[in-house]
Amino acid sequence: MEKLAYYRQCICQLLTAEVKKDLGNPDIESQLIFDRESDRYLLLDVGWQGLHRIHTCFIHLDIKEGKIWIQYNMTEVDIAQKLVEMGIPKEDIVIGLHPPYKRPYTGYGTTDLAS
After folding, report:
1. Is residue 111 part of a domain?
2. Calpha distance 61→41 (Å, rounded)
3. Which residues neighbour 62 within 8 Å (Cβ) at sequence distance 6 or greater?
4. Which of 47, 59, 53 is nearest to 14 (CA)?
5. Closest CA to 4 of 75, 64, 52, 85
6. Which is the most buried residue in 6, 40, 53, 113, by most CB within 10 A?
7. How many structural domains are present in the chain?
8. Is 41 contained in some domain?
9. Radius of gyration of the chain from Cα atoms?
10. What is the pTM assigned to this prediction?
11. CA-to-CA distance for 78 and 100, rounded, in angstroms?
12. Domain extent for 92
């Protein structure tokens, strides 16, 4: 399997496993967004909690120039470690939620792309 297709498969598998863990409010729907054309992948909660509108992004991952960018993670899951366990090299994972000057110290990939 080509690298990009494998990365997409790993991301979709990881997000699907996370959505299955959600057993909360029946008025809140967990949504998986898999945009394979633009390589953007999200896990959202959408709905209502009483009179309050819920629209929350929990995980946002992108693939840019052959690297997986962790743009946002509001879960307890170490997404980068999970991706490494799936066989993705650390240098192909960018912790995009850290500013560029911190990325060289994360032990994961770096790049000059703006986050």
Report:
1. no
2. 5
3. 39, 40, 41, 68, 69, 71, 96
4. 59
5. 64
6. 40
7. 1
8. yes
9. 15
10. 0.89
11. 20
12. 3-105
CATH of the domain at 81: 3.30.310.110
Residue 114 pLDDT more than 60? no
Beta carbons within 10 angstroms of residue 89's beta carbon:
12
In a domain, 57, yes or no: yes
Residue 23: how many other CB atoms lie within 10 Å: 7
8: which 2 tokens? 């997409």
Say which amino acid occupies 82.
Answer: K
CA distance 95 to 115: 10
pLDDT tens digits for range 42-100: 999 999 999 999 999 999 999 999 999 999 999 999 999 999 999 999 999 999 999 99
Asked if residue 115 is part of any domain, the answer here is: no
